[in-house]
Design a protein that fits this description.
The protein folds into 2 domains: 99 residues, Glutaredoxin (3-Layer(aba) Sandwich), CATH 3.40.30.10; 122 residues, Glutaredoxin (3-Layer(aba) Sandwich). It has 10 helices and 8 strands.
Length: 259
């Protein structure tokens, strides 16, 4: 290769490297920076989306400022949806389609735990601050995954055999997310109360959930993979295989309508 050609390749390589440098990437907005900081500090970010600083916006801000000021695990992130620099956040959360002003609560793992349009009550803030286990479930459901929440008695780390078999099924392996929590964990008390599971349970309880946030049922430690597949089929979310036995059984079990 001649010296001239070598220089030509070198120039092209340098240009390509420079194009890929971080300096060529747009700097993150103030909103993006605030969300990243909140996540790194394991805080719930409450995004206040607004178009104008009107009475409704000020009322929502007042509630947020008062409620978040009493907590050390939250952060307030105001976002003007007309600001071009915040377009990425507005598009990410599809905020332009929500009546303004609106508050969206984001867990440290990125799960959306609450959306409140035009009016915000103190109870809404409390409602949006969910337990660690619930944030895992919500994030998986928002990622369109099935969720098997295993609630175990204190000191019992085993996952029920039926749950393990369900996850091992090739139809479910890539679309199922397993979450495991301890029944006696005080941090999960609110979530367990919603699921009506006692903190002193002596055997494992499995809560089965499907997108967008449907509780298909709660089961004891004797649950089988067949039972879980049947529940999924009955909810119309079994699989795409028209020859699936579970799908056929669920269809056959549906009552027919006479005309």
């Amino acid at each position: 290769m001649t010296l001239t050609r070598r220089r030509g390749w070198a120039t092209m390589l340098i240009a390509a490297v420079c194009f890929l440098q971080p300096s060529a990437v747009l700097a993150e907005s103030a909103g993006q920076s605030s969300l990243a900081t909140a996540a790194s500090q394991q805080k719930f970010a409450f995004i206040l989306f607004y178009r104008t600083n009107n009475v409704a916006t000020q009322a929502m801000y007042k509630v947020l400022n008062a409620e978040l000021g009493r907590r050390n695990n939250t952060a307030l992130v105001p976002i003007d949806i007309t600001n071009p620099q915040e377009r990425a956040i507005v598009e990410q959360y599809d905020a332009s389609r929500t009546p303004m002003p609106a508050v969206m609560a984001i867990a440290p793992n990125g799960a959306v735990t609450g959306v409140f349009a035009q009016r915000l009550l103190p109870a809404h803030v409390e409602m949006a601050i969910v337990t660690p286990g619930q944030t895992q479930c919500m994030r998986a459901l928002q990622d369109k995954k099935l969720v098997l929440l295993c609630i175990q008695p204190n000191g019992v780390p085993q996952i029920p055999v039926g749950v393990q078999q369900f996850r091992a099924n090739t139809l479910n392996a890539n679309r199922t997310h397993l979450v495991s929590i301890q029944a006696g964990d005080p941090a999960e008390a609110k979530f367990l109360q919603q699921l009506k599971v006692r903190a002193d349970t002596q055997s494992a309880v499995t809560a089965f959930m499907a997108p967008p946030g449907v509780l298909l049922g709660t089961f004891n430690d004797k649950v089988t993979s067949t039972i879980l597949m049947s529940k999924l089929a009955a909810a119309g979310q079994c699989c795409a295989d028209p020859n699936c036995n579970h799908r056929k059984a669920a269809t056959a079990a549906k009552p027919t309508t006479r005309r």
